[in-house]
Amino acid sequence: MESFVETRPLPPATGKSRDALRQQMINRVGNTPLLELSKIAPAISRVKIFAKAEWFNPGGSIKDRAALSMILEGERSGALQGDKVILDASSGNTGIAYAMIGVTLGYNVKLVLPENAGELFKKILQAYGTEVVFSDAQLGSDGAILKAREIYQASPERYFYPDQYNNPANWQAHYSGTGAEILHQTEGEVTHFVAGLGTSGTFMGVGRRLKEFNPDIQLIAVQPDSPFHGLEGLKHMDTAIVPGFYDPHLADLSLAISTEEAQAVVKRLAREEGLLVGLSSGAVVAAALRIARDVQEGAIVTIFADSAHKYFDQKFWQESRNRD
Ligand code: PMP
User: Fold this and answer.
1) Domain 29-61+167-323 - what CATH class?
2) pLDDT per residue over 242-256, tens digit each?
3) CB 235 less than 6 A from any atom of ligand 1
4) Which of 105, 135, 218, 266 makes a 20 to 30 Å CA pair with 256?
5) What is the spatial distance between Cα 282 and Cα 299, in angstroms, rounded to a whole number?
6) Which sequence spans correspond to the domains of the chain?
């Protein structure tokens, strides 16, 4: 019987060697869809807003790209070998990426996570069987960085410490991957790029790639508007430990977004576009909407770093305060 569903030829199943598993992981990370947000963009303007749907990555976030790049570079340089344990600080998504890749490639992983990290992040790490060390909640993601350094310095021979805040393989993943994909998917028509700053790897890598292609492309960096915020994955650079590869001069413009504004946009994206996205996605779309109001025409590209699923235990979904 003829099938109604058009099928693509499936690749043959791969063997179970580490090389085959590594190749399978490389094939699964990146090449995410670019979605057009057709309803939320201001109706009067001729500006289009697009977003990279990064939850399509196998670990559910953009951080799979950076984690895989740092692990592959560690293997290539020889820093990661034998029974070394992958150790790093993470506010959540990079940790999940290390955990997933660690299980796949056969490395143990030890993560330092702020004690007040989301419950659903912790459950995912538990599911992967990952060892987690909690750092002082009061010190936020900086507390996790300091604790990871301490653990590493006590016995450096035991660990591979990628140090996502200072490892160039982080931003390079976005230069060769995310940035190149955006140019390809927009056929070079992108006029603005908007991204949040965590390690700043996404912004630095994509930003450099786009500026090299066309220096007129405007780069907009998004930060939380205060040191204590609910924008999971983003950093308030003025008060935080600044990542080693962060260059504040790359951005043409910096915008500060409040947690409440991001939450309101997250709800709009669910109800108007049918897209369930995380808080940093709400923040970057809030920023993209400000840009869209100010320019006549163009193609704004932004990043949906992850989906809403790890944030469903947060109260704002039930609050009417920021329903619209
Ligand atoms: N959004 C989310 C949800 C994240 O987890 C992260 C990573 N911390 C970012 C944005 C920022 O990405 P980057 O580290 O590349 O700046």
Assistant:
1) alpha beta
2) 999 999 999 999 999
3) no
4) 135
5) 18
6) 16-24+62-160, 29-61+167-323
